[in-house]
Amino acid sequence: MSELLERHRRVIPNWVGLYYDEPLELTSGSGSRVIDSSGRSYLDFFCGILTNMLGYDVPEVRQAVQQQLDSGIVHTSTLYLIRHQVELAEKLARLSGIENAKVFFTNSGTEANETALMLATVARKSNQVLALRNSYHGRSFGAVAITGNGAWKPSQLAPFNVHYLHGTDRQLPQFAGMDDAQYSAACVQDLRHVLTTATAGDVACLIAEPIQGVGGFTMPPDGLLGEYAAVLRERGALIISDEVQTAWGRTGEHFWGIGAHGVVPDIITFAKGLGNGLAIGGVIARGDLMDGLPGNGISTFGGNPLSTAAANATLDYVLSHDLQRNAAELGTMIISGLGEATAPLPAVGEVRGRGLMFALDLVDPGTGAPSPRLATLALEQTRARGLLIGKGGLYGHTLRMAPPMNLSEADAKEGLGILADALRAVNEAAAR
Ligand SMILES: Cc1ncc(COP(=O)(O)O)c(C=O)c1O
């Protein structure tokens, strides 16, 4: 065991997982590549969990951060006007499509979701929340309470009364053989049944990830969240889109993941990629909802001058380079390439994704059952070939990939080649 790993194990909680038999320390990076402490270079297709969304050492972001550092001010608190924060909020409000939108900045996705849930439950005077099975929304009491994945629920204590909806579980036997329309109809019927049987009629909100991140990039059929919204809005319930992983055009087709569902939510939460690595999250909500909180509120670090400088530079880069289009083009190429390369491999199950957010399941070649063992092996095999990827899925059997949104075509092809090669090796090992 390396000396750093030994020290890590002594002082860092055992529930903070590390990838790989021999965990990596990344010590430098540039473009889509990182270098580890032994000097080895890797192409990075996971980017600190979708967070370094422009990759590493981006001059525009570095300059913005440097300029702020040079001013001598890293922090002022929200007791004072923060120019970068106001500018960023203006851009996000405009991009959200939400009427009279206001923005509150936090330091993480968890805090963003906490805030959104506070807005919805206060506005509706109800603690009844609907969420999706297989969801992940963060690590606080409130966020854990609405997370639909037992492996990520360290506590059953909950400030909410939560009911879980279907939407990303069509592999279950009761949905076998259904096409998108039939599955969506079954889901909506189930929602109506839940509302009639399990709730007191004044549901506060539905919160959903348009593509489930930790869940393994599982997603509802296009339009389903819009159908849910139509039923719920008849009853006054609010719609929260957790865009922590799906925002900024990463899914290629739409700027926000929920765009695939034909509905503008009442509240959007975001985090991860916006600061290209600097800590920033937040909530965009209708002004009346945002202003409707009766008490005072503050986030000491939320929307600080440094993180909002980085976020403005990152967002401007994404928009001015039309990275949504890059995500659509390269994502389509990689996803179809992966589909072709893995079709003959019985150890690879479903390949899925949107834009530069794609995944595949590892399965037992004999039974088709989810295989976390093969997913772990695939992680090692890709690392050995110089590619960093992620893992996820309800059973830990999914490989998740989310390269930088400014990925080049050459890097996309290289990554695809490594993935295909590593998966062939995993398939062979599975057959042995
Ligand atoms: C969809 C989603 N929501 C919320 C969170 C929580 O964000 P954070 O880890 O920044 O608190 C995550 C983190 O992975 C996420 O993927």
Question: What does this entry look like structurally?
Answer:
With 432 residues, the chain is an alpha/beta fold. It is built from 13 helices and 15 strands. The strands form 3 sheets. The protein has a 7-stranded mixed sheet, sandwiched between helices. A 4-stranded mixed sheet has the order 1-2-3-13. The radius of gyration is 21 Å and the shape is globular. The chain starts with a helix and ends with a helix. The mean pLDDT is 97. The structure holds pyridoxal-5'-phosphate (PLP). Pyridoxal-5'-phosphate binds next to helix 5. Pyridoxal-5'-phosphate (PLP) binds at residues 49, 108-110, 113, 136-138, 209, 213-214, 242, 244-245, 271, 281.
Summarize the topology.
Elements: H1 3-11, E1 26-30, E2 33-36, E3 41-44, H2 47-50, H3 59-70, H4 83-96, E4 101-106, H5 109-124, E5 128-132, H6 141-145, E6 161-165, H7 180-197, E7 205-208, H8 224-233, E8 238-242, E9 267-270, E10 281-286, H9 287-290, H10 305-320, H11 323-342, E11 348-354, E12 357-362, H12 372-384, E13 387-388, E14 390-392, E15 398-401, H13 409-431
Parallel strand pairs: 3-13, 5-6, 5-7, 7-8, 8-9
Antiparallel strand pairs: 1-2, 2-3, 4-10, 9-10, 11-12, 12-15, 14-15
Helix pairs in contact: 3-10, 4-10, 7-8, 11-13, 12-13
The protein binds pyridoxal-5'-phosphate (PLP).
Residues 49, 108-110, 113, 136-138, 209, 213-214, 242, 244-245, 271, 281 line the site of pyridoxal-5'-phosphate.
